[in-house]
């Protein structure tokens, strides 16, 4: 397997042409909205800007992570951001290390998460890191399939252990079995231990999350850089087409919906599913039919694990799974049934995508002048295709299956606090940081053990109410896309490939003032051109509003939105690169897409007639039909 060697490790070249004298606003110039004073108390000190590091922090480039956290962070939800802050960064800096990439920093500003990639620019350090990377990454690349199989076993085991964790209110008195078993450990110990297990399980999966991911993006980035050097002018779309058409797990839930639609047609159950918009009513109507049991059995088999599919990125507790809210999969189900009844196919155009992959790969291979060049090209494209399934499949195991179950377990713990009169609603637990919950649990244990009312009964309700008010104010004040000083180099693989942030996109944001207000530039993510009505989606709850032919405009899509794509004519996102989910899904569905526009959701309004040029990365507002 061909991998990057120390001798071929690229060094940073000339930065993109900068906009003279321009920078983004200082992060320290961001003012607190009236009514949100004291927001900092909701978050740990290490996630906040600090005056003692003001010069350093003001001199960095920070961009809003609307991809994973589009709203102000709930205190508990910071467990996800803090988790990847360490997990992703240690892989690039301490485990491999990737020659040009440092870690990714985080700061919370007015409740919103901003991140900043670090670059390694010292030539001697790059060379030293390249030697370690060659050996360590080479081992993973050369044994990828075996290691991936081991990874699946570890991830699945982590999920199964998560399922076994449970929470229940402390009993009126310990059971006789707790006494006569002589265990010597009781409900207070079990409550604290179960919470510790829950937190450690999340961090364990977080570590697995990035065990192979940075290498996956790194391999693709190396292939991309090779193609850009060997084939001047080649587009990211063309490069991506050489690894497209690979079957990945993130399409499986949508495939299950398609299979259920076909079965409904075969069994003559379409009327029951089409006439009831409420999923529970539709299920009941199907179950009442003589052949309904067959469909219900198939539906139940599909639900676990494939309906543990988050409607968001999985990083927020508000990203509910299909299994919690069946409206989205049932909307897709009815759409597929109607398509089948109209005599049309509902398959993804996989064969055409595979044929195009072969054609493009063969064509560009012929442009290479020597056998050595062709051998290098073959090795890099083979490696990119090998790692690509993990780059996408890990999402189902981690962000969807695991995280959805994790959030449900936290809600079980919320029920414990409600039962002991600390909180009014299970959802209120998310206004506590995970470390505060340790204290609250011990407070609960003290009250239970002593018979004295725990202080949490009077302490947490007003504090939760205060935090709710603050967060609502922050939510009503959207963040700026970027802050600080434009970077000279961006070399961190996830930043480039996933978020779509590079020198060019940053300078595009800086130079946006004075440009045509009806034009947005972004990453040309999926070829084709489409004109249609814009549908701005800021919350997964709005997905039920999508109509046939709409052009989706969003911050970023989630893989679980896949059923909606069969109704779209194109897609546009604020953030994302050539390997973001929006880009990948659109290529697989043959839809034009432009990602990484920065300002689409704040520029375009639902109902406007827009044109998406996925070949050139341009979005135009043609007509305002919203007036």
Primary descriptors:
EC 2.7.9.2, eight-stranded mixed beta sheet, 22 helices, Glucose Oxidase, domain 1, single chain, pyruvate, alpha+beta, 627 residues, four-stranded antiparallel beta sheet, disordered N terminus
What does this structure look like?
- Keywords: Pyruvate, Transferase.
- It comes from Pseudonocardia parietis.
- One of its GO terms (molecular function) is pyruvate, water dikinase activity.
- It holds the Pfam family PEP-utilizers.
- The protein is of the alpha+beta class and 627 residues long.
- Among the domains are: 6-141 and 477-497, no CATH class; 249-341; 517-623, Glucose Oxidase, domain 1 (3-Layer(bba) Sandwich).
- Helices cover 49% and strands 10% of the residues.
- The chain has helices spanning 54-58, 78-95, 123-142, 144-164, 176-180, 187-209, 213-230, 236-241, 252-267, 270-275, 279-287, 292-306, 327-341, 350-366, 371-419, 434-450, 456-475, 493-497, 503-510, 562-565, 581-589, 600-603, and strands at residues 61-64, 101-109, 112-119, 482-484, 519-521, 523-526, 529-537, 551-554, 570-573, 593-595, 609-613, 618-623.
- The strands form 2 sheets. The protein has an 8-stranded mixed β-sheet with strand order 5-12-11-7-8-9-10-6, covered by helices on one side. Strands 2-3-1-4 form a 4-stranded antiparallel β-sheet, with helices on one face.
- Helix 2 (78-95) crosses helix 6 (187-209) and helix 6 runs antiparallel to helix 16 (434-450).
Shape: globular
Straight-line distance between termini? 58 Å
Unreliable residue runs = 1-19
Biggest β-sheet strands, sense, barrel: 8 strands, mixed
Look at the helices and sheets and give the structural class. Answer: alpha+beta
Q: Please, what is the average pLDDT?
A: 90
H/I helix tally: 22
Q: Estimate the helix proportion, in percent.
A: 40-55%
Specify Rg, calculated over alpha carbons: 26 Å
**Would you report the number of β strands?**
12
Strand arrangement across the biggest beta sheet: 5-12-11-7-8-9-10-6
Q: Estimate what percentage of residues fall within beta strands.
A: 5-15%
């Amino acid at each position: 397997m061909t991998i990057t060697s120390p001798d071929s490790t690229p060094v940073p070249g000339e930065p993109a042409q900068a906009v003279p004298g321009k920078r983004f606003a200082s992060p320290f110039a961001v003012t607190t909205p009236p009514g949100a004073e004291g927001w900092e108390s909701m978050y740990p000190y290490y996630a906040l800007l600090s005056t003692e590091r003001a010069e350093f922090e003001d001199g960095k480039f920070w961009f809003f992570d609307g991809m994973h956290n589009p709203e102000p962070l709930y205190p508990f939800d910071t467990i996800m951001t803090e988790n990847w802050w360490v997990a992703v960064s240690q892989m690039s800096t301490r485990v491999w290390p990737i020659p040009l990439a440092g870690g990714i920093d985080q700061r919370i500003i007015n409740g919103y998460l901003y991140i900043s990639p670090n670059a390694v620019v010292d030539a001697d350090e790059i060379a030293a890191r390249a030697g370690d990377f060659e050996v360590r990454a080479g081992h993973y690349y050369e044994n990828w399939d075996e290691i991936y199989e081991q990874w699946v076993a570890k991830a699945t085991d982590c999920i199964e252990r998560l399922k076994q964790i449970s929470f229940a209110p402390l009993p009126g008195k310990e059971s006789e079995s707790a006494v006569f078993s002589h265990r010597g450990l009781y409900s207070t110990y079990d409550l604290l231990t179960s919470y510790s297990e829950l937190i450690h399980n999340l961090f364990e999966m977080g570590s697995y999350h990035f065990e192979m991911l940075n290498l996956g993006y790194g391999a693709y980035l190396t292939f991309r850089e090779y193609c850009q050097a060997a084939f001047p002018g080649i587009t990211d779309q063309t490069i991506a087409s050489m690894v497209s058409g690979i079957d990945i797990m993130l399409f499986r839930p949508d495939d299950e919906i398609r299979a259920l639609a076909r079965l409904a047609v075969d069994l003559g159950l379409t009327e029951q599913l089409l006439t009831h918009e409420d999923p529970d009513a539709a299920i009941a109507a199907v179950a009442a039919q003589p052949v309904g049991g067959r469909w219900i059995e198939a539906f139940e088999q599909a639900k676990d694990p494939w309906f543990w599919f988050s409607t968001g990125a999985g990083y927020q507790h508000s990203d509910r799974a299909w299994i919690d809210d069946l409206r989205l999969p049932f909307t897709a189900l009815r759409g597929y049934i109607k398509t089948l009844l109209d005599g049309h196919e509902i398959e993804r155009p996989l064969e055409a995508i595979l044929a195009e992959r072969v054609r493009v790969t063969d064509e560009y291979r012929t442009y290479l002048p020597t056998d050595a060049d062709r051998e290098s090209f073959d090795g890099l494209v083979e490696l990119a295709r090998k790692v690509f399934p993990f780059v996408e499949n890990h999402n189902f195991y981690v962000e969807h299956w695991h995280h959805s179950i994790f959030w449900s377990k936290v809600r079980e713990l919320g029920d414990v606090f409600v039962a002991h009169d600390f909180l009014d609603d299970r959802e209120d637990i998310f206004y506590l940081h995970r470390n505060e919950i340790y204290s609250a649990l011990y407070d609960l244990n003290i009250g239970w053990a002593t018979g004295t009312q725990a202080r949490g009964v009077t302490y947490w309700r007003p504090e939760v109410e205060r935090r709710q008010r603050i967060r609502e104010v922050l939510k009503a004040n959207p963040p700026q896309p970027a802050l600080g000083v434009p970077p000279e180099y961006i070399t961190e693989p996830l930043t480039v490939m996933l978020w779509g942030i590079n020198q060019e996109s940053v300078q595009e944001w800086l130079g946006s003032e004075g440009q045509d207000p009806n034009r947005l530039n972004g990453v040309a993510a999926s070829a084709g051109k489409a004109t249609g009505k814009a549908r701005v989606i800021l919350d997964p709850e709005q997905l039920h509003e999508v109509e046939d032919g709409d052009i989706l405009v969003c911050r970023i899509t989630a893989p679980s939105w896949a059923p909606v794509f069969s109704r779209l004519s194109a897609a546009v996102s604020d953030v994302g690169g050539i390997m973001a989910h929006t880009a990948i899904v659109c290529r697989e569905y043959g839809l034009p897409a432009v990602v990484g526009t920065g300002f689409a959701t704040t520029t375009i309004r639902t109902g406007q007639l827009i044109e998406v040029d996925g070949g050139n990365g341009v979005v135009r507002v043609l007509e305002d039909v919203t007036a």
